[in-house]
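Q: Can I see a sequence and its folded structure?
A: Here is a first one.
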Amino acid sequence: MGRGRVQLKRIENKISQQVTFSKRRSGLLKKAHEISVLCDAEVALIVFSTKDKLFEYATHSSMEKILERYSRCSSAEQQLVDSETTREVSWSMEYTKLVAKLEDLQRSMRHYVGEEIDTLSLRELQHLEHQVDTALKRIRSKKNQLMHESISDLHKKARSLQEQNNALSKKRHVPWNGGNGNGNGNGNGNGNGNGERTQQVMHPWMVPHLKQ
């Protein structure tokens, strides 16, 4: 049977703690060296004992260079995180403002139709009344403008129809002209050579003679 899983907990005995620290420190330094050699990685290891004794390991580059590189990377990552955090906070604040503005607009719309006005003060009711009166004046002004424009268009159409009617009436009352002859019908026995029909007027005293 394999060994059970060892539970990690603080060693209370000072001597056992010191022995364990020495063994684990050596193994940790060995593992750091192995990973740097096998994987060509830059490794920096810093360990402080309970007595504030420093143990460190660095690869072929110095500890200062590795720490400087770590500081640059850490600073860049922190700036990126800060930028993302700032952007998220900005969007959150903007969203909150838009939601509050939308609620105000919806509340105002309900007030305009006479809803939820029980909680309004006298000054707020007077302000609402003034806004409604102003809106009604604008609506009436626009309505009157459209009515005048509609009436003007109807008058123009009526005049156009009247002009067309007059033109048709004139065409119906034009005298009819016959064919073109060669004679000259002037009533002297020569006839009407142009073929034009002349309407003779019959006087009342001629009617009895026609009946005879």
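Q: Show me another, different protein.
A: A second, unrelated one:
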Amino acid sequence: MSHITVERNRRRQMNEHLKVLRSLTPCFYIKRGDQASIIGGVIEFIKELHQVLQALESKKQRKSLSPSPGPSTPRPLQLPSTKPDHIPFGFESGGDLGACCNSSLADVEARISGSNVILKIISRRIPGQILKIIAVLEKFSFEVLHLNISSMEDTVLYSFVIKIGLECQLSLEELVVEVQHSFFSEPIFLNEI
């Protein structure tokens, strides 16, 4: 076969694979039709699927640790963990500064990413909880830049990208504890905001 024929077959096969990837990925992950956008969208979709898998594994682990199938009673909050061997929710250990705080109601994790904070929360679905989390963030001068919500059955994963405000004096450890406390506070209703 000539070089031109081999290259033509390679491009045809690459285009077929890109079409398959595009068809398997929800349309809102792919902004444009070019190859880089398709591959970038597929990467984001796979990351999201990985987060959902981690959420389901965390839910399964919480269920196996609970003593009875009845309503869960809150256990004391654990101190925030910054151990380097602890890699939560798929966070990569690359020297990033991070903290976590887990309870029977939710797992809360935060890490610094550039000039922003990545905040991830896995919990059972609780009506109005997202409002309480956002209220905590705004109370301490954080600005929500991006929010992604993934749910599977009664488990939900909130993924925030938040900007640290100039007035913010909270450490990551204090942030995860404050967000964790929002799960034990009274519900917030839209007409109260």
